[in-house]
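Structure first, sequence second, as always.
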């Protein structure tokens, strides 16, 4: 009988009961003993409560683990999607997302050491650029336009036209810019109109058409800049690839 169990044996029986390891008869014998033993009845309650707490914690951990698993799984999926979309966007940008040049930096015709080059020291152009760089673009345009009206030498006409085109381009007057750049191209056979000047003219004509959403004309002129095989070849190639998509 259970009455013959000592304290240690009784506590073992309580642990077995709580863990569902006793038969129905053994359970009845245990309760018969515990009704007369307040200490071990409290012990049973403590063990039972502890087991309940443990079981609840286990369930919470399982639930948490499941939530964490799904959280991290979802996070992994989201990260993967972001990575894939990012690669797609980068790929798309590299292949087809180009924009026309927003503005043109006006040159000061300096030589390699930073000094003003005497071979290209055109005072009127330098003055016009100074005006433009201080926000007086209209005065700069008027100055060059006046000089252009009196010009007769093809190389000088081309140089004035190139700068006028850039001034109009920076003001967003793309039609006027195209007109001046095309004047540069019209003098391409003159010995004083070098390859770089022609490249710039074709390149910026193409970009001006790009701003006007005239993509066929844009591509045609950028191709001409590319074919000159000079300083603008590489950038022209990237634009041609994009405009061909």
């Amino acid at each position: 009988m259970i009455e013959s169990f000592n304290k240690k044996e009784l506590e073992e029986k309580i642990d077995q009961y709580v863990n569902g390891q006793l038969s129905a008869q053994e359970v009845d014998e245990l309760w018969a003993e515990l009704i007369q033993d307040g200490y071990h009845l409290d012990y049973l309650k403590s063990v039972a409560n502890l087991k309940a707490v443990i079981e609840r914690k286990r369930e919470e951990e399982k639930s948490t683990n499941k939530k964490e698993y799904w959280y991290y799984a979802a996070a992994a999926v989201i990260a993967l999607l972001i990575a894939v979309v990012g690669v797609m966007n980068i790929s798309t940008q590299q292949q087809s997302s180009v924009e026309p040049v927003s503005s043109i930096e006006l040159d000061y015709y300096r030589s390699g050491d930073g000094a003003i080059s005497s071979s290209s020291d055109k005072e009127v152009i330098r003055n016009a650029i100074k005006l433009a760089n201080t926000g007086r673009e209209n005065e700069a345009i008027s100055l060059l336009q006046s000089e252009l009206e009196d010009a007769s030498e093809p190389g000088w006409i081309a140089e004035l036209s190139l700068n006028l085109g850039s001034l109009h381009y920076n003001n967003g007057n793309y039609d006027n810019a195209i007109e001046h750049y095309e004047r540069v191209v019209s003098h391409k056979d003159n010995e004083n109109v070098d390859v770089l000047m022609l490249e710039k003219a074709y390149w910026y004509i193409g970009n001006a058409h790009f701003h006007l959403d005239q993509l066929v004309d844009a591509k045609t002129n950028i191709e001409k800049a590319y074919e000159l095989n000079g300083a603008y070849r590489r950038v022209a190639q990237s634009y041609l690839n994009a405009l061909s998509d």
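Margin note: The mean pLDDT is 75.
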